[in-house]
């Protein structure tokens, strides 16, 4: 009898979800309960459209995993996980209005199905709900962490608006933008899970550092894939960031190395928005010429390494090993 080929192992996020299945069931029940509204039925309609669209729930899982690694036995980590998911959903609703997006997770966006006003106001409602959940844990420190993250997220979005289409945008500004866009909520999710557990300060810091580095690696990898990934892998078409004139890390590195003629090209396609047939190919050629794609990839791998190393001081736990795998996995798409 022929041996059956081994099934490919599920990704670490799937195995983390399996490990936390009981906690996640409680979080999902909490989310459904708290997104209800007695007086405004549109709120659960809009929220359910996004929350139930098949997202991986990665951020709430990070909170639960951090708490469990630190030996937490209560259920306040479930409230914090729901809080993190509400903050994330609120920012997505607002982002889609700002970006005038039409697709999210393969489905029409809420602002397209309803309208911009509904998306903004429902996002505001979810922020308010998230703060109610935070307060219920009775931890001022957790409230401080998540309130600060909410401010950093908003600050990052405004910074992105002012940095958009500006060739003077540096790698330092880019890092601030992606800390707001992605890493701030990752690090708040892991830090809050450690704090609610009463973990030692060194472990709290380690989990904050992990979330920060994981978020940065994740976002750089995502930005890199725009210049060389399939639509199925990244949920958007290759070159979308270029067409939208977004200054992501590969482009910033290429602009920094540009000569006068190349700079004139970047000014035309990014600052002026005068894009023509063959410009994407020309942009890719310039990025390749100056090693911008390779350098951005090296940066993503370095942040992934930093995330994994930060876990070393944590207690031995299956979830610690899975978080380490997750840090490698988020950049495996660009290897």
TrEMBL record:
Cofactor(s) the protein needs: Mg(2+)
Keyword hit for Transferase: yes
Family from the record: Belongs to the FPP/GGPP synthase family.
Top-rank taxon, per record: Bacteria
Keywords attached to this entry: Magnesium, Metal-binding, Transferase
Organism encoding this protein: Pseudogemmobacter lacusdianii
Lineage of the organism: Bacteria, Pseudomonadati, Pseudomonadota, Alphaproteobacteria, Rhodobacterales
Pfam families: polyprenyl_synt
Protein name, per record: Polyprenyl synthetase family protein
Transferase as UniProt keyword: yes
Classification via InterPro entries: Isoprenoid_synthase_dom_sf, Polyprenyl_synt, Polyprenyl_synt_CS
């Amino acid at each position: 009898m022929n041996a059956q080929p081994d099934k490919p192992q599920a990704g670490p996020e799937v195995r983390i979800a399996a490990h936390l299945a009981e906690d996640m069931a409680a979080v999902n029940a909490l989310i459904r309960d708290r997104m209800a509204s007695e007086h405004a039925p549109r709120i659960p309609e809009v929220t359910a459209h996004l929350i139930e669209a098949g997202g991986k729930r990665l951020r709430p899982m990070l909170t639960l995993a951090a708490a469990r690694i630190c030996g937490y036995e209560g259920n306040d980590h479930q409230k914090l996980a729901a809080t993190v998911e509400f903050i994330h959903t609120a920012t997505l609703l607002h982002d889609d209005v700002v970006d005038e997006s039409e697709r999210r997770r393969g489905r029409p966006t809420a602002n397209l199905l309803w309208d911009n006003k509904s998306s903004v106001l429902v996002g505001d409602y979810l922020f308010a709900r998230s703060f109610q959940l935070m307060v219920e844990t009775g931890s001022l420190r957790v409230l401080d962490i998540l309130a600060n993250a909410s401010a950093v997220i908003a600050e990052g979005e405004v910074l992105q608006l002012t940095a958009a289409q500006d060739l003077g945008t540096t790698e330092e500004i880019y890092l601030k933008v992606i800390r707001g866009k992605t890493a701030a909520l990752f690090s708040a999710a892991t830090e809050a899970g450690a704090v609610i557990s009463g973990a030692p300060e060194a472990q709290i810091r380690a989990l904050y550092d992990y979330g920060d580095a994981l978020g940065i690696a994740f976002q750089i990898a995502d930005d890199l894939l725009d210049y060389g990934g399939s639509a199925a892998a990244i949920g958007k078409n290759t070159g979308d960031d270029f067409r939208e004139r977004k200054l992501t890390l590969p482009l910033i590195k290429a602009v920094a190395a540009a000569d006068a003629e190349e700079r004139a090209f970047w000014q035309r396609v990014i600052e002026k928005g005068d894009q023509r047939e063959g410009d994407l190919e020309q942009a890719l050629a310039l990025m390749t010429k100056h090693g911008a794609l390779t350098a951005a990839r090296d940066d993503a791998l370095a942040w992934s390494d930093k995330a994994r190393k930060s876990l070393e001081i944590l207690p031995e736990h299956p979830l610690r090993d899975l978080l380490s795998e997750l840090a490698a996995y988020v950049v495996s798409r660009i290897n």
